[in-house]
Amino acid sequence: MKRTETLVLLCSALLVAGLYHEVVRWLFRAWLDDPYYSHGLLLLPAGAFLVWLKRKEIYRAEPEDWLFLPLCLLCFGFSLYLLGTVLHLPTLLAFSLLPVLAGFSLVFLGKRAKPLLFPVFLLATAIPFQAFEALEVPLQNLSASAVSAIFGVLGTPTSTSGNCVTLAGNTYWIAPACSGLNRIMPLFALTAVVAYLLGSGRLLAWISLLALVVPFALASNILRLFVTLLIGTWFGVEVAVGFAHDCSSVLFFLVALVLILAAAGVFKLKLRLKLRPL
């Protein structure tokens, strides 16, 4: 790298650090304190691992000067930054960081930066979006009604009132954490990684797989609640709201992962890493 390029790289890094250090601190606080977005802490090492898997593409790709695309990304990113600053919206500021990072990566690496773009934009799934949480109560009610309907099909009488399910003389409250909302974004990130690793050039399959995230998340969460209430009926409320409730989160992701991989099979997505040996 020439001395001029090194100087420009250093200035760019200082610019990004100066503009976004508070935004990064806000993101880390959200990841540490907000269970809806705690998966953000996992995306950093996951992104580094994805880049490591593609390291041969970075080393072997021929240098190619891209100008129009990185300039568009940088203009878009800094425009979002200005808008977020004027409106005092930290979410918008955080989203603006993604095209800025992608734009500078393309400026300095050109075509070799392609393996970096997906891990950068994957962080979008871990940026807090307050309006998203407005769905919490409707999903609580939906989960309660769905679980009650399953028990009704099985011949077990239940009743619901809002987000409460009465079963075998016990009333279970579907808490906000059990609405399934806090699992949608982590599952979206997981599905995006699966779509990235499976298939090549199948944009429609990618979109279709990602479109299934919400129904998969809701279905898996309803199954988790059903199993938890079933355990409560068989072994008592204490077991259901204790050990069984804690273990049911593992069940959620196992069921969701099976559904994702099954859908990937339907879309005929295959592991593409074998086509790029390390």
Kindly describe this structure:
- This protein has 278 residues and is mainly α.
- The chain is built from eleven helices and three strands, in the order αααααααβββαααα.
- A three-stranded antiparallel beta sheet has the order 1-2-3, with helices on one face.
- β1 and β2 form a beta hairpin.
- α10 runs antiparallel to α11.
- The C terminus is likely disordered.
Outline of this structure?
With 278 residues, the chain is mainly alpha-helical.
Provide the fold topology:
Layout: H1 3-33, H2 40-53, H3 55-60, H4 68-87, H5 90-109, H6 114-122, H7 136-153, E1 158-161, E2 164-167, E3 170-173, H8 181-197, H9 203-211, H10 213-235, H11 237-266
Antiparallel strand pairs: 1-2, 2-3
Helix pairs in contact: 1-5, 2-6, 4-5, 5-6, 7-10, 8-9, 8-10, 8-11, 10-11
Secondary-structure class: mainly alpha
Quaternary class: single chain
Distance between the termini: 25 Å
Show unreliable segments. 274-278
Cα gyration radius (Å): 22 Å
List keywords for this structure.
3-stranded antiparallel β-sheet; elongated; 71% helix; 4% strand; 278 residues; mainly alpha
